[in-house]
Amino acid sequence: MCRWAAYRGEALFIEDVVSSPAHSLVAQSHSANEARTATNGDGFGIAWYGDRETPGLYRDILPAWSDCNLKSIANQIRSPLFLAHVRAATSGGTRRDNCHPFVHGRWSFMHNGQIENFEQLRRPLESMLPDQFYLARQGTTDSELIFLLAFHFGLESAPLFAFRETISFIERLAIHLGLKPDVRFTSAFSDGNKLYAVRYATGDIAPTLYAAPMGVNGGYCLVSEPLDDNRQSWMQIPNRSAVVLGPDGLEVSMFDTGTADAMDGALALLAAAHP
């Protein structure tokens, strides 16, 4: 599983999240505490917003701990909103275009988790993409495909609804194909104005998500795991929750795909068919 961190608030140097804290994202790339694997060395990336509508993007396949350019960029760039990610590959090879975050237009997206049985689901999922989004696909990960599917389901106008519909569609498709639905989805995404995050799993165990105030005037950081040992300052976001960070601060709401009833019946049929 990957590790990521995102920030929205008064402009900070990216290093204040990515490299300076005791348990920074760079530190987590070689020594994560709350991931299945401690090492997240299959590449990294940063998307940041500045004076332009579309975000800047820097990604590479090197481990985050060994890239001197990352340290220099993080030391020099200040941004009021940025997303940073270190990768432990579960789907797709170690290639730059498989590194998170992914960017399309003004939107940026990064993900920790996976679609179970992705290889069986990949072709029908890709067939759902309109041409403009299919042609925008550069890599081979399930994460990028989820991102582009969300545009199809209305990301530009209703971000949380779009991801809810996307995940629900994936779960229902798995059921339709006789597969056990299993999506693990802890993500962050932004349009350059608001920062969104979702913690969701089809089952009971979702990749972790924490939030804590940072900086001044209502700034917040969202992370896969805390950046320091002061656990009291970090709020754990529950499974099946959505977070929105905007001008009015942090809001947490329920996030549910609504497929539980359908899955109960489908899983019973699957169990009967494959005792």
Number of helices: 8
Q: How many domains is the backbone divided into?
A: 1
User: Which CATH C-level class is it?
Assistant: Alpha Beta
What percent strand?
25-35%
The CATH homologous superfamily is called: Aminohydrolase, N-terminal nucleophile (Ntn) domain
Distance between the termini: 31 Å
How many beta-strand runs? 13
Principal-axis shape: globular
Proportion in helices = 25-40%
**Structural class by SSE content:** alpha+beta
How would you describe what is shown here?
With 275 residues, the chain is α+β, with helices and mostly antiparallel strands. It has a single domain (3-273), classed as Aminohydrolase, N-terminal nucleophile (Ntn) domain (Glutamine Phosphoribosylpyrophosphate, subunit 1, domain 1, 4-Layer Sandwich), CATH 3.60.20. 28% of the residues lie in helices and 29% in strands. It has 8 helices and 13 strands. It has helices at residues 15-18, 25-30, 68-76, 118-127, 131-134, 142-152, 159-176, 260-273; strands spanning 3-13, 44-49, 56-60, 78-86, 102-104, 107-115, 183-190, 195-201, 210-213, 220-223, 235-236, 241-246, 249-254. It has a 7-stranded antiparallel beta sheet. It has a 6-stranded antiparallel beta sheet with strand order 5-6-7-8-12-13. A hairpin with a 2-residue loop joins strand 5 (102-104) and strand 6 (107-115). Mean pLDDT is 91; it is low at 266-275.
Helices and strands, with pairings:
Layout: E1 3-13, H1 15-18, H2 25-30, E2 44-49, E3 56-60, H3 68-76, E4 78-86, E5 102-104, E6 107-115, H4 118-127, H5 131-134, H6 142-152, H7 159-176, E7 183-190, E8 195-201, E9 210-213, E10 220-223, E11 235-236, E12 241-246, E13 249-254, H8 260-273
Antiparallel strand pairs: 1-4, 1-10, 2-3, 2-4, 5-6, 6-7, 7-8, 8-12, 9-10, 9-11, 12-13
Helix pairs in contact: 6-7
